[in-house]
Amino acid sequence: MKSTAPTWLMPVVAIFALQTASAFLSRLIPIVAPAIAEEFGWNGSSIGYLSASNALGGLVFLVAGSSLLRQIGGTRMLQLLLILGAACMGFFLYPSMGIALAVCCVMGMSNGAANPAGSEVLQRFSPPGMRNLMFSIKQAGVPLGGMMAGLFVPVVIALAGWRFSLFVFAFLVLLPTVLTWKLSAVLDETSKVEKRSGSWMPTMQSLRIFVAPLTSITQDRGLLKMSIVGSLFAVPQSCWFAFTVIYLVDGLGFSLSLAGVVFAVMQLGGVFGRIALGWISDYLRSSTATLSIAALFSAVTTVLLGLTTPEWPLWSIIVLALISGCTTASWNGVHIAEVARRSPPNLIAETSAGAAILVSVVNIVAPTVFAILVATTGRYDIAFLCVGVCALLVLVILPRDRR
């Protein structure tokens, strides 16, 4: 008898590949930016603003694109945004901070589409007993994309220069997009009513599109709390992603290549951490317990990062980055699955987008405030301490369910 693959395998693989490409597109910004800034004469704090602009792009899509995603389909929408982001990388060649900020914003739109698109697909295809694991596997594509950026980007820049490297990076983004292009016809579930009515056009009646995602997460107290928890987790995650490389280079005297390796180790921890936390959550049948553990380790590792000095041995910083990746960068899958579980079945795309909007706002604000703190105090340790406190607040906000 001929064996067949489980029905969830193809959706998970396709969404995982697109999630990885989207993460790579965003994570390469804080790694390639130091080389661009050095040539164009931009200061180090510009990296924080570029990262914030990238998060703004994700927020723009989450606020305005949920209806368009429902009409086109999650997989197809994500593929189109990856193509757009790859095409925009060529504009980095112009020595203009304004153009760079606009480019980062456009590149971030795929990151905004990844969560609601993937959640909508996996919620339909994932077996109930494996849902946390399936969502965590999807989210493991985020640190995998970051790990690829940390290892690959500095090497290509060193060998070919950052200008030619942009075209190599664009190819890497387009490759999984092309390979999964035909699968959207199988995976996507689109709204024919909205297609016929043309509700994507900006009219007064369509104003609800902008508030629907945020309104949807207020319908249940536990859902709202879980959404706020995601925004608190986003504070340390966004600051680790935006400032690890520049902190290691400017604060500890690392080379760009060595800092990229540490960044890649952190992302590697995220790959295993997201899958491990998803498995633990399903095993314990408690997302709250799993997220509490992640919050504690996230706070400790973030504070310790701020206390590092050039005298610390390299292995200790690598271990710190690995542990942080397993926790600070690994909460997403469990959190997204819990948001989807608490959502009404017909509002999963909206509630996922609403929770992701809060995360995206923090991804804009946190790196900006962090950069301002460092610029005004001249100290990274104070900024990292404040970030660690935000992680501890998760323990206060988490909803306490009996089940």
Short synopsis of the structure:
The protein is mainly alpha-helical and 403 residues long. The protein contains 19 helices and no strands. Helix 12 runs antiparallel to helix 16.
Order of helices and strands: HHHHHHHHHHHHHHHHHHH
User: Which oligomeric form is depicted?
Assistant: single chain
Structural class: mainly alpha
Give the tally of structural domains.
Answer: 1
CATH arch. level architecture: Up-down Bundle
CATH superfamily caption: MFS general substrate transporter like domains
Overall pLDDT confidence: 81
Main beta-sheet strand count, sense and barrel state: none
The radius of gyration is 20 Å
Q: Tell me the overall shape.
A: globular
Number of DSSP E strands: 0
Low-pLDDT sequence parts: 192-207
In CATH terms, what is the fold-level topology? Answer: Growth Hormone, Chain: A
Question: What is the terminal-to-terminal distance?
Answer: 41 Å
Q: What portion of residues is helical?
A: over 70%
Strand content: under 5%
3D structure, described in words:
The chain has 403 residues and is mainly alpha-helical. Helix content is 79%, strand content 0%. It contains 19 helices and no strands. The chain has helices at residues 9-27, 29-40, 46-64, 66-72, 74-88, 97-107, 109-125, 131-179, 184-187, 192-197, 208-216, 221-250, 256-284, 287-307, 314-327, 332-342, 348-377, 380-392, 394-397. Helix 5 packs across helix 8 (131-179).
